[in-house]
Write a structure and sequence with these properties.
144 residues, two-stranded antiparallel sheet, single chain
Length: 144
């Protein structure tokens, strides 16, 4: 049933709107007072710059602050925020191997995505809880 709802929401999100050239952005819609946010995922950047976890992040992230996301290995998703900061959502232990390459959906209870409360759903219908958020800073990898 969740897969059918996901397909319906995908169709509703894409109907009647023209995307600007390039990748689609973060979209949200309200269906019967329930907020559903589709977040496209960008491939993980493979360069000299990497993102390092430096501190505990916020308990919640405002949905309106999310500009995009990228994969951070099997246990996390990096959220790019509109203020150019990044936070990593560390996923629950039982979530290894979930496929978020085609993007994902979040259905927060309010206008915030919160750790230990909200879940991330892949486009194929699997869900995963957010354990915590971690703040990220860019670091240059040193050449060998």
């Amino acid at each position: 049933m969740f897969a059918a709802l996901t397909a319906l929401f995908t169709a509703l999100l894409s109907a009647g709107s023209e995307e600007p050239r390039g990748e689609p952005g973060v979209r949200s819609m309200v269906v019967e007072q329930r907020l559903i946010v589709r977040v496209p995922v960008q491939p993980r950047f493979r360069g000299r710059l990497h993102w390092e976890e430096v501190a505990n992040g916020p308990r919640c992230v405002p949905v309106s602050a999310i500009a995009g996301a990228s994969l951070a290995g099997e246990d996390g998703i990096d959220f790019l925020l509109r203020n150019r900061q990044r936070v990593r959502a560390k996923l629950d232990d039982d979530c290894g191997g979930l496929d978020f390459y085609d993007g994902f959906y979040v259905t927060p209870q309010d206008q915030r995505l919160c750790a230990r409360r909200d879940t991330i759903s892949s486009r194929v219908g699997r869900t995963c809880g957010i354990d915590r958020f971690r703040l990220l800073v860019p670091r240059l990898e040193r050449g060998e």
